[in-house]
Amino acid sequence: MDRAVGRREVTLRDVAVAAQVSKATAARALGDYGAVRAEVRERVCRAAAKLGYRPNAVARMMSTGRSNTIGMVVGDIQNPFFAQATRGASDAADAAGYELILSNSDEAPALEAKAIGVQLDKRVDGLLIAPASSRNGDALSAVVAAGRPFVLFDRTVPQLDVDAVIADNRRGARVLTRLLTDAGHRRIAFLSTLEHPGGYRRGDVLSLSSVADRVAGFEQAMRDAGAERGAVVRLGAPREDIEPVAVELLTGGAGVTAVVASDSLIALGVYRACRDLELRIPDDVSLVAFDDAYWTGLVEPGITVMAQPMHAIGAEAAGILLRRIGGAPDGPQVRVLEQELIARGSVAAPAARLEPS
Q1: Number of C-alpha atoms within 13 angstroms, CB side, residue 237?
Q2: Hey, which residues does 103 pair with through a beta bridge?
Q3: Which CATH number is 69-167+310-337 given?
Q4: 87-96: string of b/e by CB count within 10 Å (b at 16+)?
Q5: pLDDT tens by residue, 322-356
Q6: Which CATH fold would you assign to the domain 12-64?
């Protein structure tokens, strides 16, 4: 560091003096706005690097009107889906010169509202949000009131006409379930951690559009196979303790011979339950799941999955948000991305001992 500056914090004025320009010119050069000759910009940047100057984000925001940050609110940071979607959004933001600030809602509307408030207090230029509820968009009203653009991802809120990027979950569930019905299964469980007090009844409106679409696809495939009466939709499985619920499904009166897991963490709980019960996959129980988690390809046999474009969902949502921040005038759009079936070895005909006599 320059000896004249000593140990005190380096200021924009120090950079301007070192580069022999005005403070305003130094600000324009470092903020990459306004008219500055290339050689002057280079001189200012060299001086800033030599002095170890770190720009004041608040001052930059006051001069440009932007913080060059975007906020992201995910439902469950432990879920591999959100980890990959965050990476996609971060990559897109970084390429555009933006930083990403991450918050976790724990799938709770109250925590989501708090997270959004914190993000707005940090003066983010826009937000990416996986809404904790598709039936209640109240938490998003603060974003609207603040005049910030936002893009939903993974889920939609039907009453809001806003940008969103989602996967084709209905088709994905239909394809996974048809694999099971084509193999001969007629008593199949769809398992999710989505809370739904009172238990699920056919036709219920669910609080997350992504799970609602998967349930709809599952039920459609069961109807198509003439097996509607054998469809078991089990919601509200505790995320931290999937195995007892899976054991109940596999050994209880429902006589389930196959499971569609709504994500890879649920599938792992079912897999462990089968191991504890000494049930073999797929000889005794067939298992399919959403999300191509690393472990699903390592176990033997591998688990058949519907791989979601997780990175692409995050990147596409961030791309739309950045265009909105830049003033893109086109109307709201909902992008639906295709999923990919990865067939492994976890599906077979139902075991005779589990079939009704």
Answers
A1: 26
A2: 73
A3: 3.40.50.2300
A4: ebbbebbeeb
A5: 999 998 878 899 999 999 999 999 999 998 644 44
A6: 434 Repressor (Amino-terminal Domain) (1.10.260)
